[in-house]
Structure formats: C-alpha cells, structure tokens
Structure to design on (1078 residues):
C-alpha cells in the first residue's frame, strides 16, 4: 500500500504563497483558515543575513498525536497514510489542535462562515457553494487534497507552486520523486524530537 | 470514512474547464477556469500546455475568483449625485441606463473635442488592450494621466529599444550560469510573467546550479534566494555597474571579438562626440594592423582598434570604446565604493567571477547556427532603472553585458518583445553605417515637438521617452511658465488608478482631479480614482470577456486567448463595446479603427483590416489578432487556449546578426540637438532649464540629484513590491490580504536595526517620514538585519488611501507622496522621474488624528494586530 507524503525543497521555495491561495481556492477556506502556510524567517546579522521561506502543512504523521487524543474517533488514517478528519464524527473539542505540535488544525467557526471573506455577512456564490463542506464548530486541516489523490492528481498546492518546491508522492516507492529527494539531499522532518514521524520532509 | 457523499475538492466537482488567460497583472500567463454545472467559477489553475508558465500561477493569478465575485463590483452604469468630491466622500451613485450614461459621456467629452481635443486627459491603462490604450490617438491626442511611464520603465523601454530593438529584456534562463539581478524581482517576485520566470529560474538554480547575485538595498526575495546579496545604497546602481566595467576593462576581461565585430565600439568619435565621418557620411575606424584610418565597411581591415587616440582628416578622435575607458578611469571600485558603499574587493571579485563565467570565446550549436555562448549576464529593472539619469543608468547596466559579449546570445541578456503580432516577424532593422537601427519608441511614435505644448505632460519635449505623466502636475502648478494655451477639463479613465499610483503630493493631485469639468471611469471595482468620477461605465472582468494578447513573455512567444468562463454577472460591457459606443457618438469610429489597424498590425494583412462601417466586439478583435499571428481561427484558439511556444532561437539570439549594436548611442546627441534647435526656433522660454547633460552617448558616474538633498534628510527611502503585490491592484482581494498582512516585510516600515537603535527608535514605534518633496507619511517601524543602514523600505501594501472600496485598508499615507515630481529629478532624455528619495524620520507618541478617526475603514495596522491574535483579516 502506498504511503503518501510531501517534500519541501527549500532551495526552490520563494515564499510567494501561491500554494496558500491555491489551497484556499481548492478547499473554499473561510477567512483565517489555512491548510498550508508559508513562513518567512530571517537570521544572521547585517550584512551576513539570510531569509528562508518555510512552507508548512499537516505532516500526516505516522504516529499522529491528534488521532491519539481524538475522543470521538473523527481523526483517522487512511490506508495510504493520509490523516483525515470525519466532519460528521468531530465534536469540536479541539483536543487535537492542542495535541498537534505543528499548529496544523483549526476550528471552523460559525462566525467565519457567516461573515464571509469580505467580512460583510454576504457570501459570494463561490463561498455559498464551497462552505457546504464545513460543519461549524468542527476541526479542519489539510488532507493532501485526498479526493484529488484518489483521482490520480497531485494536491492543488503542488500543482500551482511556481517553483515546484512541493513534491508529492509515495514514500514507500523508493523511485518516487519524494523518496529520491529525501535520500539524495538528506530530507529532514519537522520537530523530529516530537517523535510523531511526519510524512513531510524538508530538503535544502 | 466520511458519510459526506458529495465531492469537496472544487476542481473535481461536476463542471467544465475553460482555457483562458490571466489578467491579475498585466502579463498573460494562460490558465484554465473550472465552472460548475451550476455556473459557479470555483477553481483557476495554470494551463499546463503553455511552455511559459507550465501550469503554474502566482498568488495573484490564484485569486482572480475573488475579484470576479467581489461584492463591491460596479453592477450597472452609475451617475454621481453628490457634487462634492474627495477621498472617501460618498459620490451617492445613482444607477442609470447604458444609453443615458454613454450619451452623457459623449456629450461631455464631445464639448472638449469640439473646443480643443487637447483638453481631454486620458488614462487608459489596460496593458492587454492597446486598442483601448491608443483610442485618443484617433483625435490626435497624446496626453497621458497614467503612471505606466514612471512606475514602469520610462527609461528602461527606450534603452532596450536602442540596445536590443526590443521592449524589455531578460537573461537567458536556459543557458545562463551567473545571473546578476540588480534592483529587480525577475525570476523571483515580479516583472515578466512572474510565475513563469520563477519556474524556469528555480530549475536553473537548483537543477543546473546557476549562481545568482542580487544587488539591492533590501534583502528581497531575489536576494534571499541568491548565493550572494550585495547591499547597496539606493540610487547608486549605475555607479556600481560602471565599477564592474572598470575592473573588466582594466584587467582585459572583455569579449574583444564581440566588441570589434558586433558593436560600434571601434567607430571613431570626434571631439564633438559625433562619429567621425567622411564626406559621404561613412564612419571612420582605425585599422590597428595597417595603422591607418579606414571606413567602417572596408574589407581590408585587419584589426579594429578599440583603444588609443588618433587623428583622421585633421581631426582628433578615439574609438568609442576608448571614450568609455576614459569615463571608466573615474569609476574604480574604490572610488565608487564611496557612493555605493559596496566594498571594492567585492566589486572586483564579482567582476572577475562574472567575466570568468561568461566563457569568452565559447560557442554553442543551436538550430544549425554556431553562436557565442556567454552564460553570465546582468539583469535589472524598476528599482535600478527608475533614476533621474535613467537613460544613463540603463545604458550602464547594458554596458556590463557589452563588456563580456553577453547580449542577445545564449546565456546572455536577451531582448524581449511586447507583442510580435506575427509569428515570422523579426524585430531588428539595419541602421546607419552597419549599425542596428535603435528603436527607442517601443510604444509608438512621440508627437513632434510643439510650442505652446500640445501635451499637458510635455511629452514632445522627451523625444526618447515613454510618458512623464508626473509633469502634468508641474505644468498645472504654473501653466504660464510652460506657455500652455489650454487647460485639460475632461478625464477619460479605463482600468487605471492614477490617484493611487502617481508620484507627488496627493492633495495636489486631488485638486487637479477636482478641477476637471467631467470625469468618466470604466473599471470594475471602486478605487481611489473612481471616487472622483462623474460617470462609471462598468466593464466585464477577465472571467467574462474575450481578448487575445502577447505581453512581453520572457522565454516564449505567441498569442494567448481570454474567453468568458461565464456570462457577465452584472450589467456590464466590454471595453471594446464601451469605446465603440463612445466613438460612434463622437464620430470617431473610422479614425479609431485606422489607429487600431496600425497598432495591432492588421495593416500587415489587409484582409484583416477593420472596416469603418462595422462594429467589432471583443471576441472579434481576439479572432483577428489570432489570425494575424498564425492564421488560425477562433475555434482553434478556443480549443488550444494559446499559440504559445518556446521562443524561436532565430528571434531570441542575434536577430541582428551582421549588424553592429549601439555600444555608443550617437543618436542621443542628434535627438538632443534637434530638440534644442526646435526649442530655440520656436522661442520656448524654458529651453535653458532643460538638463541637456542628461543626454550622454555613454553612461557617466555623475551623481543623481537625490544625493545632493539637504543633509537633514539623512536617509534614503524606497518602496517595493513582492509577487503578491506585483503590478496593479490586489489589496482589496481578501486572499491577497490574508497572505500579505501575515508577512512581516509588508506590515511595517523597514529599517536596519542598528540604524534604528542609533536613532533612538524601538520596534513598533510610530514614525513620521518626510522628504524634501512631500509628506509626511506615517508608519510603524521595524528593525531588521535585511536593510541597508542608510535606507528605509516601504512595502506597497502600505500605500492605500481612504476610498469607497471598503475592502481596502488605509495605512499612514502613500510612499509615492514623498517622491519628487519636478524637472530637476526628471530624466531630460526619457522623462523617467527619480524613483527614490531622501527622508527624515521623527518618532511620534501616537498615530496622527486621521488614522484614529472612528467610523473609518480599518487600517493595515489594525488588521496586522488582529491577525497577531490568531484571527483572520476580519
């Protein structure tokens, strides 16, 4: 069985946030909800200074703390390793958000769904259609665009990334692009000391 | 598993994909638009079949849906009922019918047309629709009230015209190994097809190991991704480029074969700065083999001398290259360091690395041609070119490439065309004495010099320029001085927001707009400028209309189709229909079509020429442009979406083969003298005020006036954009806001942390910023390590003013109000104004009153604080 994961190539990422907006489009995310983010960190002292752009999303951990603490069984792992939330089962207790060391989970509020992206209380046709997927009060996060994956497509953020900084594929396949990158360029997982065994890696 | 049976992913919902072209900036990445069976547009992706953007889209391209569904879109024609005009003052719009709106506009415009067509001030800024842009030419009007010339490439485009006979330029991403980016986001965050450029650049960087060096006062995205960031004092890039040339000339790191055979560098220049010519006008060169003067085309020449001093026909002369070397004597890295602050040893190292990477002498086979391979090139754009001595700045950057022969050759710096119109068209033409014809007028001819001036912004006094629209204000402040015999009283504005983007004091621009008898604006959402309109003519947006365009693609060529993904949401019209209806009422249709036949190049294929008795829709214009390119009809384009292919090598590489490039731009002296003579002949009183020294056939290290401002303005100020803010309005778009205001560089005035400390300032202090030319503006300061110690950097995200668009967030005033708009800071050659300024900073205890008022739209800083609490933008 496949084990789907992603590699972020930090050499390629230019911090443009096209992935973030591409994700918001694909998933009709309400204001303030992100399934993926791009952080920008500066280090060093002038003039020897650098900035690094760090994309983040749900790490789809092999040992997901969110799943362990979920009291309702809403969080589960698919056979291909994608960590999911069943909106019908979620009771919105937020225990998962607290347990997640990566701040990858958000609670969808009634307020955000009603206020809309323009904050006017009037929803655009895009939002009216898209917000149907959300149950107010439940937790949401990146699911690697699981329905696209099922249809044989890459996640939306991967497709739009102008620099191909997001590489998606089967980590169990040693010849997949992400497997090769992890091997050849020494992929590292985020907050490895948390022992959550992410399926998201960074190379630089 | 979820019990939800429905499909959640927008791109998988039942529906259809429509192939089209983006217009969230002026460029033309192709995309595909998903429309559900219910007619809702719910996903836009890049079109993977285009070799330019390869299915990629930037964040702005990804956010077009929210522009389409923006609840504040103009939904029908509107008439102002509140006579009082001002920023954020409710115009009290009244919906009216299209016929009524067009009749009113035609009557008001018609009054001026009848009295004096020069009284019409156009601001028609849709760069994907030159048929609209050039509408005023149909009544002989060359006025301009849009910022395209100044905020884009006022000097850049003419310089590219002289050097490449092209509109723009870019390094060859496919072969370049050493890429210098100076004052530009090319390949990372801005300019030519940002998503496409970023894609190809990332491949070159990561897969091929191309080295990038970025010269910038701020650690930009380009600098962040470069092997080396070279911080530089603002407005000194020209001096840096000349110091690179100094090292290469001094150490013999030049492509002498290229300079001798492919440029006019060996042409002999007399003491008057002109090429030395015989009685027939042929230019002399010096043959170093026979040690005697010969004519440029003498086949017996053994070796073209590039250096030395000679006497020919009794006149002292030097090769153009020697003239440049004389200038470079003043440009040692040590001397230039005093201006640029770039350490001399760094300059020397970079010059040597650059020349070594250029592989002088190497060749490459491409499509059956053996071409010089020069995989090192100097690239630049807005931040570096926007100088008072703009032509000299541009020329100096080109000189770095001239030295190593990396112009229009694989790996080098390549000319990029705006719209080649026909697939087989080659841009270059022969000029005088074996030289390539320099073509500085890339956007069409400049009208002949007139006095009293026919153009309110004095366009005809800048015969090499694009447009100096900031001078509208200089003239308006003292029309008598300039001998004006008319006053503009009508503005015709389409997809342009001059009140936001113009440099110079906002209150004066506001007064200028208030002085108009009538203003019509065609746009889709409220802006700073629409607040001053008398009539709004709402146009379709990019997802509802047709177009065909090729806008300066860096690595490809071809036409890109825009087609409607949905019926118009509101009672809107295409710009083509709007201007047809106006033209019909004003009796201008035939004249307008004549202009379009020329501008679009339909006159090249007579069967495509517009017929005066017909009305052409946006769809028909699209079809004609597609046919002109490759003979394919609209159905072909609807199926394929575009005719974009990789750029043909015969166009990209040495299209001028056999001609000599303009290393030495003698034409600038001709232009100068012709203008001066015309001004003297017509008795123009301000002739002595013209800064004739700006006209130089070779770039000099002479300082721009920004460096000579009063000492209390002890810092330099500049503004910047990143990819999220690239080209044009995006800051009312919730998705753009949601990413921009989370990025620290876009939420505060950036200052080097040491400088901040030295000034007794602390992070988040409120500061007042003034320049010798305007202000103040206000902001919250942030100390960073990523800024040159002499400069503050202000993001364009902090530029918006109060206006009727409730989704726009004000900040402490637009940086552009600090910029000079006077003649002293305007390039007398091109009209390019200085794009940076000197500033002084004062700490305040609190925000000024205007930012504290209740019942006002939220400020950027309020949103930033809101977000910091873990919330969204609302």
């Amino acid at each position: 069985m496949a084990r789907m994961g992603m590699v972020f190539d930090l050499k390629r990422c230019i911090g443009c946030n096209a992935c973030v907006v591409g994700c918001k489009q694909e998933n009709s995310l309400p204001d303030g909800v992100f399934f993926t983010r791009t952080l920008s960190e500066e280090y060093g002292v002038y003039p020897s200074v650098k900035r690094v752009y760090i994309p983040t999303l749900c790490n789809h951990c092999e040992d997901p703390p969110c799943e362990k603490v979920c009291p309702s069984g809403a969080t589960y792992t698919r056979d291909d390793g994608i960590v999911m939330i069943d909106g019908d089962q979620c009771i919105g207790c937020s225990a998962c958000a607290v347990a997640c060391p990566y701040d990858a989970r958000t609670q969808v509020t009634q307020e955000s769904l009603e206020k809309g992206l323009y904050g006017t209380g009037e929803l655009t046709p895009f939002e009216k259609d898209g917000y149907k997927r959300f149950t107010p009060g439940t937790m949401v996060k990146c699911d690697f665009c699981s329905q696209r994956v099922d249809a044989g497509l890459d996640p939306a953020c991967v497709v739009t990334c102008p620099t191909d900084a997001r590489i998606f594929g089967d980590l169990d396949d040693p010849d997949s692009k992400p497997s090769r990158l992890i091997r050849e360029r020494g992929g590292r997982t985020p907050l490895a000391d948390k022992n959550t065994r992410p399926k998201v890696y960074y190379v630089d | 598993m979820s019990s939800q049976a429905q499909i959640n992913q927008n791109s998988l919902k039942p529906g259809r994909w429509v192939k089209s072209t983006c217009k969230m900036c002026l460029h033309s990445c192709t995309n595909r638009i998903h429309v559900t069976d219910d007619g809702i547009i719910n996903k836009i992706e890049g079109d993977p079949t285009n070799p330019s953007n390869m299915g990629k889209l930037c964040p702005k391209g990804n956010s077009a849906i929210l522009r389409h569904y923006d609840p504040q879109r103009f939904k029908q024609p509107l008439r102002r009922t509140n006579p009082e005009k001002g920023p954020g003052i409710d115009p009290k719009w009244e919906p009216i019918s299209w016929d009524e709106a067009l009749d009113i506009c035609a009557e008001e415009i018609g009054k001026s047309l009848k009295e004096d067509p020069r009284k019409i001030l156009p601001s028609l800024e849709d760069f994907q629709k030159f048929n609209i842009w050039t509408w005023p030419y149909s009544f002989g009007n060359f006025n301009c009230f849009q910022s395209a010339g100044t905020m884009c490439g006022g000097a850049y485009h003419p310089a590219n015209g002289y050097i490449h006979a092209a509109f723009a330029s870019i390094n060859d991403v496919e072969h370049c190994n050493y890429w210098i980016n100076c004052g530009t986001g090319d390949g990372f965050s801005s300019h030519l097809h940002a998503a496409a450029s970023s894609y190809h650049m990332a491949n070159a960087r990561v897969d091929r190991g191309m080295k990038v060096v970025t010269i910038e006062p701020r650690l930009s995205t380009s600098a962040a991704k470069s092997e080396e960031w070279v911080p530089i004092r603002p407005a000194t890039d020209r001096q840096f480029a000349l110091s690179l040339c100094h090292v290469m000339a001094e150490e013999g790191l030049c492509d002498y074969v290229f300079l001798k055979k492919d440029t006019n560098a060996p042409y002999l220049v007399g003491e008057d700065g002109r090429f030395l010519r015989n009685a027939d006008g042929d230019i002399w060169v010096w043959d170093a083999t026979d040690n005697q003067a010969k004519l440029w085309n003498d086949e017996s020449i053994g070796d073209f001398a590039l250096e030395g001093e000679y006497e020919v026909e009794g006149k002292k002369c030097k090769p153009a290259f020697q003239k440049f070397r004389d200038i470079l004597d003043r440009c040692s890295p040590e001397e230039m360091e005093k201006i640029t602050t770039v350490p001399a040893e760094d300059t020397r190292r970079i010059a040597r690395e650059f020349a070594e990477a250029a592989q002088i002498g190497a060749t490459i086979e491409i499509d059956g041609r053996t071409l010089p391979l020069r995989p090192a090139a100097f690239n630049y754009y807005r931040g570096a070119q926007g100088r008072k001595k703009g032509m000299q700045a541009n020329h100096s950057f080109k000189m770095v490439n001239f030295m190593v022969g990396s112009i229009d050759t694989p790996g080098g710096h390549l000319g990029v065309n705006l719209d080649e119109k026909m697939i087989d068209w080659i841009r270059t033409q022969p000029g005088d004495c074996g030289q390539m014809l320099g073509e500085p007028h890339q956007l069409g001819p400049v009208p002949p010099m007139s006095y009293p001036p026919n153009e309110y912004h004095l366009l005809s006094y800048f015969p090499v320029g694009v447009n100096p629209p900031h001078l509208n204000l200089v003239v308006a402040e003292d029309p008598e001085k300039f001998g004006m015999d008319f006053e503009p009283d009508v503005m015709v504005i389409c997809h342009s927001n001059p009140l936001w983007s113009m440099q110079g004091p906002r209150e004066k621009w506001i007064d200028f707009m208030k002085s108009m008898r009538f203003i019509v604006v065609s746009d889709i959402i409220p802006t700073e400028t629409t607040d001053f309109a008398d009539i709004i003519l709402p146009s379709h947006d990019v997802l509802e209309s047709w177009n065909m365009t090729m806008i300066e693609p860096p690595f490809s060529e071809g036409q890109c189709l825009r087609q409607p993904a949905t019926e118009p949401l509101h009672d809107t019209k295409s710009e083509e229909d709007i201007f047809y209806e106006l033209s019909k009422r004003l009796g201008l249709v035939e004249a307008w079509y004549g202009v379009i036949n020329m501008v679009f190049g339909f006159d090249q294929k007579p069967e495509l020429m517009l017929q005066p008795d017909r009305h052409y829709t946006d769809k028909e214009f699209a079809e004609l442009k597609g046919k002109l390119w490759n003979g394919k009809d609209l159905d072909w384009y609807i199926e394929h979406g575009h005719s974009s292919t990789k750029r043909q090598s015969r166009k990209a590489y040495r299209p001028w083969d056999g001609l000599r490039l303009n290393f030495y731009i003698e034409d600038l002296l001709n232009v100068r003298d012709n203008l001066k003579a015309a001004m003297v002949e017509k008795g123009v009183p301000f002739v002595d005020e013209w800064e004739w020294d700006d006209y130089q056939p070779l770039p000099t290290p002479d300082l721009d006036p920004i460096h000579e401002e009063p000492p209390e303005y002890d810092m330099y100020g500049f503004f910047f954009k990143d990819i999220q803010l690239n080209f044009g309005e995006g800051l009312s778009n919730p998705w753009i806001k949601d990413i921009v205001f989370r990025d620290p560089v876009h939420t505060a005035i950036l200052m080097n942390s040491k400088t901040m400390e030295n000034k007794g300032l602390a992070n988040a202090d409120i500061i007042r910023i003034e320049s010798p030319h305007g202000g103040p503006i206000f902001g919250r300061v942030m100390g960073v390590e990523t800024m040159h110690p002499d400069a503050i950097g202000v993001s364009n995200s902090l530029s918006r003013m109060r206006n009727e668009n409730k989704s726009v967030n004000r900040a402490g005033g637009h940086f552009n109000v600090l910029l000079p708009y006077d003649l002293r800071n305007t390039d007398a050659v091109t009209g390019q104004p200085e794009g940076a300024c000197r500033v002084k900073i004062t700490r305040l205890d609190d925000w000024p009153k205007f930012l504290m008022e209740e019942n006002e739209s939220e400020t950027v800083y309020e949103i930033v604080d809101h977000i910091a609490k873990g919330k969204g933008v609302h």
